[in-house]
Amino acid sequence: ARAVGVAEDPSGMIVRSEAMRKVLELARRVAKVETASVWSRLRANHQIMNTSFYTYVAVVSASAMMLVARYVSITTLSAEAAGLLQACLGVALSVGAILGPANAIFFSPHVNRSIPAHEKISVAETFLPRMALLFCLGALPIVLFPGTVLRILFSDRFAVVAEILPWFLAWQCLFHLANVYQQLLIGLDDVRGYAAVTVSGNVMTIGLSVGLVHRFGLAGIGAAFVVGALLTGILTTIRIRRHHAQSVPISAGTIASFALVSFAGVTMLIGSTPELSPTGVGVRVPIAAVYLVALWFTLPMSLRSELNDASRRRLGGRGRGNER
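RE: above sequence
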């Protein structure tokens, strides 16, 4: 008590309060020093700030795209249309859900290593057909039986958008194909380019969604998503060529074209035939066979040879096991 200028302090409260004040003051000074140290490090390393800023801009633009699409569907069409749109988005995003983690685990670590740019392009060229193969195989049952899928996942009332669902599947396929080379831009330390092409594609989607929904309804929003993803892929290719003097293989464009043509072609061929009727199944089986053959020949020769070798080894192993 005498230390703080008080004659008596029987309970010790004054002493404890003074001690607590000193502890808090010391903590405040330490926090101030640490905060200043963090900001000084961030200012010294501009790459951290730039990467965070441009990534944030890209993410915000994607969120804005989804927000506007839902907003125009509910304000221009109806609340029911907004629910139907969400169903289409949910199914399409579910098909592509596994490809995002696969990209982050098997592709991004390779292109973010300190290796020459042409080697990173080679890694992208190898990875993209494999991802496209998985998506096209996963999307085929939904393209063939969209109404049945919507009935199983939701209800009969959602089957009215069966003809629109392939638009959103095509969007997801193009999105993931473009995302491979967008991740390549990040690996080439071009985060600003990544943000620029992403924002451009999303802005295109927003503009077309607002412009097409009045005339074409949910199909117009689906078309806007496809065009936006396609623009993102094209701009990414141009960015890689002009700013990094690297060329994107033709196979990437071939696979993207196959996705667009095949999804549209299958939808047109099956028409309005009942999905689970004998006639409907009879129509869909040859269409699926042609689709799979076309997909096989769309893949690069190297991947086809690799798959053939893997099949032979697997069949050979089974044959030896049966003999034993």
